[in-house]
Design the sequence.
């Protein structure tokens, strides 16, 4: 089999990442620099800080990726870069670097949709996985149920109408002073809690499977304020009134049940028997467990990306880049970055 090495570059948020993937499936090198520590004190990503860090570190990330891969630039078939959606100042750094390398190394250039990349993270873990399948993408900025008809054809079945689940995890963690990013911290704390401390809404839009997470977020924050007010009346810290682990476990379980309910309805609707999870929130241990139970019961095949490929990385961009290289025309060097970008156009 011919050896097709693709260099992937990802810079849509606060990770500066580059990777080389062989034939869309095998990671040869994978370097990620995260500026998350710099954003911690703000409780969320500060776009200008993220862009400046990308500019500073991207040459070294690229250099290390090439050195670790142990291949020469001549062996590279193409360069794939995230063109959107994401923070535009961040995306521009990766796109500019990719265009420069494509020009001086004379390589074809492919602009990749970030969420198509998240889905492709599964090709790195499951070498046998091929479309069609249904995918649930849950990240810090997105929540989509997508019918993946082929490597390059996507139909959106449902999307969030407001916040993304990761964003809500981060917001609740910030209000609880747990740190940033909040998802992994809540994930660990919830293991010690009961998930029935209070009720949370599960918004529905008739037959439409779209999500709305802002109601769950607001109801959780209102609950926290009520508890804090009660505690203030009796001059006690609020943590004395309720167990913090129970609080986060209740919130987390509402998010998971909501995602499960809509995803299983989408499975029925589309008649698919393969379900592929993707995105940062797919790293959540309880979510992985609940989806395993639910799919086993229905005899469905579940695909869970390795934890290291759930959150942002460039190996997933190179994996998707392989299929773009095989089937699509390369971009011109006037490729731009897009803060908003649809998957299905
Ligand atoms: O996919 P990703 O790296 O970036 C975007 O494309 O948005 O996702 C980052 C999000 C953050 O909101 C983070 O809190 C969340 O994924 N996350 C988790 C876990 N690990 C990361 N959420 C819940 N449980 C986790 N274990
Ligand atoms: Zn992402």
Sequence:
């Amino acid at each position: 089999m011919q050896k097709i090495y693709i260099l992937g570059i990802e810079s849509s948020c606060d990770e500066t990442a580059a990777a080389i993937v062989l034939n869309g499936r095998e990671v040869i090198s994978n370097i990620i620099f995260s500026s998350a520590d710099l954003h911690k004190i703000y409780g969320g990503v500060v776009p200008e800080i993220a862009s400046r860090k990308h500019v500073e570190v991207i040459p070294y990330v690229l250099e290390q990726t090439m050195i670790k891969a142990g291949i020469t630039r001549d062996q590279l078939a193409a360069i794939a870069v995230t063109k959107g959606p994401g923070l535009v100042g961040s995306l521009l750094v990766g796109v500019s670097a990719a265009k420069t390398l494509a020009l001086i190394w004379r390589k074809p250039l492919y602009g990749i949709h970030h969420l198509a990349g998240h889905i492709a993270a599964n090709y790195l873990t499951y070498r046998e996985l091929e479309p069609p399948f249904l995918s649930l993408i849950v990240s810090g900025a997105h929540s989509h149920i997508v019918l993946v008809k082929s490597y390059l054809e996507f139909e959106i079945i449902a999307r969030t109408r407001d916040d993304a689940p990761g964003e809500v995890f981060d917001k609740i963690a910030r209000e609880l002073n747990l740190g940033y990013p909040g998802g992994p911290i809540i994930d660990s704390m919830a293991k010690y809690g009961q998930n029935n401390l209070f009720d949370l809404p599960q918004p529905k839009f008739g037959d439409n499977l779209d999500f709305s997470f802002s109601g769950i977020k607001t109801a959780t924050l209102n609950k926290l304020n009520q508890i804090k007010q009660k505690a203030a009346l009796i001059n006690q810290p609020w943590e004395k009134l309720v167990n913090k682990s129970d609080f986060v476990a209740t919130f987390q379980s509402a998010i998971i049940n909501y995602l499960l309910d809509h995803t299983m309805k989408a499975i029925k609707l589309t008649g698919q028997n393969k379900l592929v999870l993707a995105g940062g929130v797919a790293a959540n241990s309880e979510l992985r467990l609940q989806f395993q139970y639910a799919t086993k019961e229905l005899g469905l095949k579940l695909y869970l990306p390795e934890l290291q490929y759930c959150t942002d990385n460039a190996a997933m961009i190179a994996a998707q880049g392989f299929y773009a290289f095989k089937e699509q025309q390369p971009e011109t060097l006037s490729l731009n970055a897009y803060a908003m970008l649809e998957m299905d156009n």
Q: What stands out?
A: The mean pLDDT is 97. Strands lie at 5-10, 15-22, 26-34, 76-84, 109-113, 133-138, 143-150, 153-159, 274-278, 301-303.
